[in-house]
């Protein structure tokens, strides 16, 4: 297990682990960056929707034995909750300074964490019979559990589908137009309000997928599992250039891989969350507009 | 914002609590634990353990005829909360003594205040060395991290005879003091530390560490953590094909660890303070009483809080509740049988007791070994 080839294998393994984590970040950050693009609101409570997705995934899987059904239910319930948050929390505050909506968002996030604790208990929930726990040897010495493969596969399929939707359908094009310039889109006859509802539904459903996937990897959902994504996803969307979906995607994957290597080679100096912010500072010094956004 | 909301909740809780005046002729003991926030699971278990001890003491006639009464305070495992709560316990609620069912940060802050007010305080399971250094009114009924780390080294290098070890350390007081004790004694037992990794208490995703451990190919892993980090860690290690023994500590000691890690938990070995297979009546009563009361199997924090209350009750029996200096002396000279074994204290107020080694077998914690080596397990005297 020594020598150049084993180092190469380790680096490959670390890269794969980073991409798995990056796929999860991407599912969370996409919804967040889209909300920012549309409304200029930092949607902190998005992280609670991620947690809710985890709970929905575990509860439905435990009740029915079907992970696929659990994913669908999680996406629907969390998507609808996201729409509800827009309708009842943000919409009445849209004419106020963005800080007001941010405060509302933080408040909702705290309420949600404690609500999860009251409803589901402080210990968190686990799958009674966790699905996709078998593993395969994808390369000699590199094992990936089916859960990890599912995380990456689902992320690729869902994000690919969204990319296709937004590039090739009328709804998608009006969505993109609204995200990049709401007043101009409205003047072209786009129903901005409809786009906002759609946006919250899709963004929240993506977070629900991420929540269920994290539950699968750790076999644990906890009331506070949104705490780290709540601020790390903000770092990711800043990295990607606020409001840029493509940037958020690139930033998510880059951060996943950097954290993966950082955990091993910088772990004594910086913990994983600090690595994210060190990377953020570095990128902002070199490219203040974000990784992919135009300057 | 977070803290103001929490303070409001707390205010409501305290208003409700204070609406019920203390029972006449009772001895009040303060109990701070994290009942909300990230550590709420441990806080609530500790509380149930403490309440069970109070019920048992009172059912057996109380303390010299007076009933023991537990006043409960939610410190959210935060020093910001525990310090003012300690002041309230002592000055307003006039407790005879206090017990911490909380983590190190909050317990340290409260311990300083108990010492300043010359009121006895027992830390049930917080591990930071500075807690008892607050002064002669502060005691600890659980192992210091260093002591348990030394027991871990003896377990791996001595009892299990495994020599090449990777250390995975939780980056907080608990993890760091365990790692310090482990590394300090590793050499004595012929252990070579292949590498060491640290992680934060918020991490649940250990993919990179698992990959590196695989490349390190050790004989065993010494991994500090709590059930909510260790459960995912063990699961991910096994899912990636790492089959070597995993040795943990009391932070794993909960049924929830086994639930999270599932079949992968089998064979995991920990150092802790509770022997599930003990034949001692006091331990059996605790284990069964806890499961009846809580509805789930017991854990380390519950056993530790239970122990702390029994030690306090015994000292109150000897010294009464009126004289705090006498009560302190009574605790200091304790020689009490408890749910976690025989308890006595050294000059610093640190506990002297055996380390229990437990293993997961058929989905439950079972007896594996006992480490009773007074020299190895001697806590610092100052």
Measure the end-to-end span of chain A. Answer: 46 Å
Sequence of secondary-structure elements of chain B? HEHEHEHEHEHEHEHEHEHEHHHEEEEE
Distance between the termini of chain B: 40 Å
- Unreliable runs of chain B: 17-23
Q: What is the fold-level CATH name, i.e. the topology of the largest domain in chain B?
A: Rossmann fold
Spatially, the strands of the biggest sheet of chain A line up as: 1-2
Q: How much of the residues of chain A is beta strand, in percent?
A: under 5%
Give the total of domains of chain B.
2
Question: Helix coverage percent of residues of chain B?
Answer: 40-55%
Strand order of the largest sheet of chain B: 7-6-8-9-10-14-15
Structural class estimated from helices and strands of chain A: mainly alpha
CATH class of the largest domain in chain B: Alpha Beta
pLDDT averaged over residues of chain B: 91
Fraction of helical residues of chain A: over 70%
Q: CATH superfamily membership of the largest domain in chain B, which one?
A: Response regulator
List keywords for this structure.
heterodimer; A: 295 residues; mainly alpha; two-stranded antiparallel sheet; B: 382 residues; alpha/beta; Rossmann fold; 2 domains; 7-stranded mixed beta sheet; 5-stranded parallel beta sheet; 20% strand
Summarize the structure in words:
Chain A is mainly α. Chain A has one domain. In chain A, 74% of the residues lie in helices and 3% in strands. A two-stranded antiparallel sheet of chain A has the order 1-2. In chain A, helix 2 packs parallel to helix 4, helix 5 packs antiparallel against helix 8 and helix 6 packs across helix 8. The model of chain A has no long low-confidence stretch (mean pLDDT 88). Chain B is an alpha/beta fold. Chain B has 2 domains: 213 residues, Response regulator (Rossmann fold), CATH 3.40.50.2300; 144 residues, Rossmann fold. Chain B contains 13 helices and 15 strands. A 7-stranded mixed sheet of chain B has the order 7-6-8-9-10-14-15, with helices on both faces. The longest helix of chain B has 20 residues. Chain B is globular. Chain B starts with a helix and ends in an 11-residue tail after the last strand. At the A-B interface, helix 1, helix 4, strand 2, helix 8 and helix 10 of A face helix 2, strand 7, helix 8, helix 9 and helix 10 of B.
């Amino acid at each position: 297990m020594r020598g150049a080839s084993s180092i190469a294998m380790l680096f490959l393994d670390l890269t794969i682990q980073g991409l798995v984590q990056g796929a999860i970040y991407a599912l969370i950050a996409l919804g967040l960056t889209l909300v920012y693009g549309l409304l200029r609101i930092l949607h902190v409570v998005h992280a609670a929707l991620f947690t809710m997705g985890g709970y929905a995934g575990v509860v439905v899987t435990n009740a029915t034995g079907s992970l696929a059904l659990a994913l669908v239910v999680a996406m629907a319930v969390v998507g609808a909750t996201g729409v509800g948050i827009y309708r009842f929390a943000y919409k009445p505050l849209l004419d106020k300074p963005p800080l007001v909506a941010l405060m509302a968002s933080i408040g909702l996030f705290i309420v949600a964490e404690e609500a999860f604790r009251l409803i589901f208990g402080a210990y968190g929930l686990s799958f009674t019979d966790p699905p996709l726990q078998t593993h395969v040897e994808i390369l000699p010495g590199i094992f990936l559990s089916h859960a990890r493969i599912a995380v990456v596969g689902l992320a690729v399929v869902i994000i690919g589908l969204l990319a296709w939707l937004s590039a090739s359908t009328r709804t998608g094009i009006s969505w993109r137009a609204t995200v990049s310039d709401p007043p101009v889109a409205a003047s072209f006859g786009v129903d901005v309000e409809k786009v906002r509802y759609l946006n919250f539904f899709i963004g929240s459903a993506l977070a629900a997928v991420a929540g269920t996937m994290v539950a699968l990897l750790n076999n644990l959902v906890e009331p506070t599992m949104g705490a780290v994504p709540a601020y790390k996803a903000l770092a990711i969307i800043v990295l990607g250039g606020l409001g840029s979906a493509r940037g958020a995607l690139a930033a998510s994957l880059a951060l996943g891989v950097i954290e993966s290597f950082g955990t091993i080679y910088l772990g004594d100096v910086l913990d994983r969350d600090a690595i994210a912010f060190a990377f953020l500072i570095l990128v902002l010094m070199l490219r203040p507009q974000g990784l992919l956004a135009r300057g | 914002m977070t803290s103001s909301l929490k303070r409001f909740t707390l205010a409501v809780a305290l208003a409700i609590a204070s609406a019920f005046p203390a029972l006449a002729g009772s001895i009040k003991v303060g109990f701070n634990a994290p009942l909300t926030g990230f550590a709420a699971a441990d806080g609530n278990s500790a509380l149930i353990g403490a309440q069970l001890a109070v019920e048992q003491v009172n059912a057996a006639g109380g303390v010299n005829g007076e009933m023991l009464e537990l006043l409960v305070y939610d410190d959210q495992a935060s020093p910001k909360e525990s310090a003012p709560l300690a002041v309230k316990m002592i000055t307003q609620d006039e407790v005879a003594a206090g017990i911490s069912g909380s983590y190190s940060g909050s317990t340290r802050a409260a311990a300083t205040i108990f010492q300043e007010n010359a009121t006895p305080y027992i830390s049930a399971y917080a591990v930071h060395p500075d807690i008892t250094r607050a002064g002669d009114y502060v005691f600890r009924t659980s192992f210091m991290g260093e002591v348990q780390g030394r027991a871990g080294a003896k377990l791996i290098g001595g009892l299990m005879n495994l020599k090449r070890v990777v250390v995975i350390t939780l980056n907080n007081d608990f993890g760091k003091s365990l790692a310090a004790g482990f590394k300090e004694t590793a050499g004595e037992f012929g252990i070579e530390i292949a590498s060491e990794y640290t992680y934060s208490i918020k991490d649940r995703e250990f993919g990179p560490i698992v990959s590196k451990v695989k490349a390190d190919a050790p004989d065993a892993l010494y991994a500090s953590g709590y059930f909510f980090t260790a459960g995912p860690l063990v699961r991910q290690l096994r899912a990636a094909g790492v089959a070597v023994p995993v040795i943990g500590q009391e932070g794993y000691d909960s049924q929830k660890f086994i639930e999270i890690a599932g079949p992968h938990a089998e064979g995991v070995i920990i150092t802790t303070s509770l022997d599930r297979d003990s034949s001692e009546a006091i331990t059996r009563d605790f284990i069964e009483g806890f499961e009846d009361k809580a509805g789930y199997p017991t854990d380390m924090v519950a056993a530790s809080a239970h122990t702390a209350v029994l030690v306090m009750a015994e000292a109150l029996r000897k010294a009464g509740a009126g004289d705090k200096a006498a009560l302190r002396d009574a605790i200091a000279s304790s020689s009490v049988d408890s749910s976690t074994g025989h308890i006595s204290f050294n000059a610093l107020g640190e506990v002297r007791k055996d380390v229990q080694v437990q293993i997961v077998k058929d989905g439950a914690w079972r007896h594996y070994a006992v480490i009773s080596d007074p020299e190895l397990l001697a806590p610092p005297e100052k």
